[in-house]
Amino acid sequence: MSRPAKPLLALAFVAGLALPAAAEEIGPGTVVARVGATEITLGHMIVMRAQLPPEYQALPDDTLYQAILDQLIRQTAVAEQTGGELSLGARLALENERRSFLADEALGRAAEEAATEEAIQDAYEAAFAGAEPTPEYRAAHILVETEEEAQAAMARVQDGADFAELAKETSIDSSGQMGGELGWFTKGMMVQSFEDVVVAMEPGTVAGPFETQFGWHLVKLHESRLKDAPALDEVRESIVQQIQRDAIEAALERYAAEAEITRAEIEIDPAVLKNRELLDN
How many beta carbons lie within 10 A of that of residue 209, not counting itself? Predict the structure, then answer.
């Protein structure tokens, strides 16, 4: 059986609750309510608030405080009075959630600990130290279906037609409405035959017609430049993400290598995973 959806927070005042302790006494272990033998602490409330959707977190603090406390009290009352009885499917789901939570916590710590300033600096230097400036090109193009159309367009350019206006009029590429502008790009960003033409051009000139798998082109090179390696702050986020991905992968491999793993040698039809009726037995 599927688990029932979690109820929305009830935004009602819980009568008879004591006010929080004085500020100097407050901590995550501060007991804010008891349901039977179960204590509800400020820490429980802080964790629940952090897990709420943004629209709930935007509520006033006093309203949200009472709503969260009410929710925890109601949930605890249900758990206390039912004795925590769960169906087989619910117990297995809870085990999976616990397993996932513990793994995420461990891997999250590994990722956070790996992204030190020293590691970030080392990764930056490995990627960019001594790197040669990268050539960049800013160009526009006109794309048509046939060589005859491309030759006709080139003739108009040679007769003085404005390249951008001609692109708007004739190009079948989506860039046509922007005058054929392609912006700045580096080697490897365009198809090889297009790149070869651009690299050989002088700024301010028009080349073509030439063919790629997309059709027939004219290209105008506006300018070229050499771009230096990016500053650390420009690539810090991507470096941190890569360090953390590597750390998580290394941790996964380490934990798997250190664990005693035995796979059962039995034949199981993979389609059995779709059979939720097994959980009702």
Answer: 20
pTM of the model: 0.59
**Measured on CA atoms in the order 56, 60, 63, 65, is the torsion positive or negative?**
positive
CA distance 149 to 143: 9
Report the DSSP pairing between strands 38-41 and 31-35: antiparallel
3-state secondary structure of 13: coil
The one-digit pLDDT tens for each residue of the chain (281 residues) are 444 444 444 433 333 344 444 555 889 999 999 999 899 999 999 999 999 999 988 899 999 999 999 999 999 999 888 877 788 998 899 999 999 999 999 999 999 999 999 999 999 999 888 778 889 999 999 999 999 999 999 999 999 999 999 999 999 999 999 999 999 999 899 999 999 999 999 999 999 899 999 999 999 999 999 988 888 999 999 999 999 999 999 999 999 999 999 999 999 999 999 998 888 85
Distance CA 209, CA 217 (A): 5
Q: Taken in order 109, 112, 116, 122, is the CA torsion positive or negative?
A: positive
Backbone dihedral angles phi then psi of residue 279, each to the nearest 5 degrees: -75, -10
Buried b (16+ CB within 10 A) or exposed e, 174-207: ebbeebbbbeeeeeeebeeebbebbeebeeeebb
SS3 218: strand
Task: Name the phi and psi angles at 9, rounded to 5.
Answer: -60, 130
Q: Which token pair is 211?
A: 């063919």
Closest Cα partner for 211 from 134, 124, 149?
149
Polymer length in residues for the chain: 281
